Amino acid sequence: MPKLNYNSKVVFAVRNVLLLLSVGEVVGSMSVSSSLRPNIIFILADDAGWNDFSFHGSAQIPTPNIDALAFSGAVLNNYYTSPLCTPSRGAIVTGKHPIHIGLQHYVIRGDTASGLPLSEKILPEYMKELGYSTHLVGKWHLGHAERVYSPTYRGFDSHYGYWLGNQDYYDHTSTDAGYWGYDFRNNMTIERPAFGEYNTDIFTQESVRIIQQQETDKPLFLMVTHTAPHSGNEYNPLQAPQENIDKFQDSIEDENRRVYAAMVDKLDESVGRIVAALGEKGMLNNSVVIFASDNGGAPEGYNLNYGSNWPLRGVKNTLWEGGTRVAACIWSPNIMNRVSSDMMHASDWLPTLYEAAGGNVTNLGQIDGLSLWNTLTTGESSPRHEFLYNLDDIYNNSAVRFESWKLIQGNISTLDFDPIPWDGWYGHYPYNTTVADLVPQILGSRVATALQSIGFSLETDTVKRLQEAADIKCNETLPEIACNPYAEPCLFNIVEDPCEKRNLAGEESTLVAQLLALLNSYNSTAREVIDLSHNPEAAPYNWDYVWTNWKDYL
Ligand SMILES: *[C@@H]1O[C@H](CO)[C@@H](O)[C@H](O)[C@H]1NC(C)=O
Ligand SMILES: *[C@@H]1O[C@H](CO)[C@@H](O)[C@H](O)[C@H]1NC(C)=O
Ligand SMILES: *[C@@H]1O[C@H](CO)[C@@H](O)[C@H](O)[C@H]1NC(C)=O
Ligand SMILES: *[C@@H]1O[C@H](CO)[C@@H](O)[C@H](O)[C@H]1NC(C)=O
Ligand SMILES: *[C@@H]1O[C@H](CO)[C@@H](O)[C@H](O)[C@H]1NC(C)=O
Ligand SMILES: *[C@@H]1O[C@H](CO)[C@@H](O)[C@H](O)[C@H]1NC(C)=O
Ligand SMILES: *[C@@H]1O[C@H](CO)[C@@H](O)[C@H](O)[C@H]1NC(C)=O
Ligand SMILES: *[C@@H]1O[C@H](CO)[C@@H](O)[C@H](O)[C@H]1NC(C)=O
């Protein structure tokens, strides 16, 4: 294994060399294609588990549209995010690790006075510079205390959706920080007509409307950040239309899991409709479509939604693989039929998509993200060899990765109101049918049909081969060695032991020291956490029971 003597300067120097290399590739690809920049459609699920999509090996919740997208393009099987919504979304839009934007601790609350620092230039702003129309449909969760933090002041031409972290799927009220209020906007206007409509449906309709109305001489950047399958408000956490719940009447016994399955089913339908709309508009053959979760599912603990990260360890809001290694896939006409094991981090999307759009990644300045566009399109090996899971000195936990090695330490259970470690393996739902039985559904899905009509047809054998390749299994014969991260760092070889069962810290003390040094070098670059203190002025009862940009009105 390579020597681990990185300090941050070396890391940045190595990255700059890589950036220069990828610039060369841009020159090459731009000279062959002078046509319109590709449309970029980024569909983000909220708190969906690793095991909640049939492309990962469980047929319990069939997701034929998402599977068709994944198997026609690439399953991103080694993709990592932060274990919580705000930091993951911050990394996606800035190309920076949350420790470099002050979002490494918990999430932005309804009564937080700040947001994603205004000094950051974000993805839609970069896309606008390249001539894109930019639209956000769905959740924001990166700050709203002043209007300048909100989406339409940060590069989005329009926003239809909500500002906080979770809400009721039908009445669009959000409970947060002990308060309750309406949270739905059309740009800055409070959107009352949305009341009573199911989020996944209205976000899909708005996305389809945007696609239909797109001027086809202009490229589209559309982010669809679904509520699903996040839990709703505490008093009614699992919500889906009855007809979708009924589809699972015979196959899923657990009532909560059945509603969760219906939430995922609606999500799959949404992906089908959005891709079909791109096809009908003649845009699909020049589009990049991404589907990803923001962090792991919550089969237990915080924001419990009955998702499943099986066979990965842990839950949302933990630095175990179940919280951070998440379901994701990408399709473009240049990415074909692969399961990618290239290491990728949420911060890589900004440079990857900027390069896909024909931008010069040197314009992005000093970021943490690396462009994987070349890796994804040509199969060249990933430029990424390491990443920081997170480093949170308030909760006192951290985890870092170098190649296959992961070090994890500290208080992994992080919430005063949820102090259980959640360090086990949850959400194992044995199931009768196998994913191979889903092949006809996948081939008959809206996504497969739309792709076929532009010349990309999926074959049964390809699907079966990729289903097999995307299914991560624990090595049941690997002898377990317990880990107590509260007492001392644990070390895992994630490639050989994706389920984190064999703690090798005792056997590999040199590696432990090297990974601790790597962690220290990241730590020396961390910035202070943004001010997350509570502000009663934000409470919706002060503002006609609406969550608002309260600081603008004081
Ligand atoms: C990208 O930017 C760098 C630095 O400004 C420049 O040297 C390089 O020529 C640019 N590449 C392209 C393709 O414009
Ligand atoms: C939101 O902004 C977009 C782009 O400026 C505009 O087309 C749309 O009409 C606006 N919606 C509302 C409700 O103001
Ligand atoms: C699995 O198969 C058995 C026997 O055919 C049946 O009784 C059971 O309901 C099935 N379970 C599921 C989850 O489909
Ligand atoms: C995509 O399809 C449209 C309409 O079917 C066609 O006009 C266009 O040339 C195609 N573009 C590419 C890049 O194949
Ligand atoms: C933080 O976690 C480490 C283990 O990683 C432990 O040794 C240390 O005592 C903890 N610090 C506090 C303040 O709890
Ligand atoms: C971990 O943090 C939780 C929540 O702050 C706290 O209740 C618990 O005592 C901590 N555990 C240890 C071992 O420090
Ligand atoms: C599982 O672990 C055992 C024991 O270390 C090892 O011999 C075997 O090769 C591993 N199997 C796989 C598929 O990695
Ligand atoms: C990070 O550095 C700070 C001092 O700047 C220190 O208090 C903290 O313990 C360090 N955290 C880790 C995980 O090394």
Overall residue-averaged pLDDT value: 93
Cα radius of gyration in angstroms: 22 Å
Proportion of β residues?
5-15%
Q: Give the CATH H-level superfamily.
A: Alkaline Phosphatase, subunit A
Tally of individual domains: 1
Tell me what you see in this structure.
This protein has a single domain (37-476, 526-547), classed as 3-Layer(aba) Sandwich (Alkaline Phosphatase, subunit A). Helices cover 28% and strands 15% of the residues. It contains 14 helices and 18 strands. It has helices spanning 8-32, 64-72, 85-94, 123-129, 199-213, 242-246, 255-280, 321-324, 349-356, 373-378, 439-443, 446-453, 460-470, 509-523; strands at 39-45, 74-76, 79-80, 133-139, 158-162, 173-176, 179-182, 185-186, 189-190, 220-225, 287-293, 328-331, 338-340, 344-345, 386-392, 397-402, 405-410, 490-493. A 10-stranded mixed beta sheet has the order 9-8-5-4-10-1-11-12-2-13, with helices on both faces. A 4-stranded antiparallel beta sheet has the order 15-16-17-18, with helices on one face. Helix 5 packs parallel to helix 7 (255-280). The structure holds 2-acetamido-2-deoxy-beta-D-glucopyranose (8 copies). One of its GO terms (molecular function) is sulfuric ester hydrolase activity. InterPro entries: Alkaline_phosphatase_core_sf, ARSB, Sulfatase_CS, Sulfatase_N. Residues 38-358 form the Sulfatase N-terminal domain. It comes from Orchesella cincta.
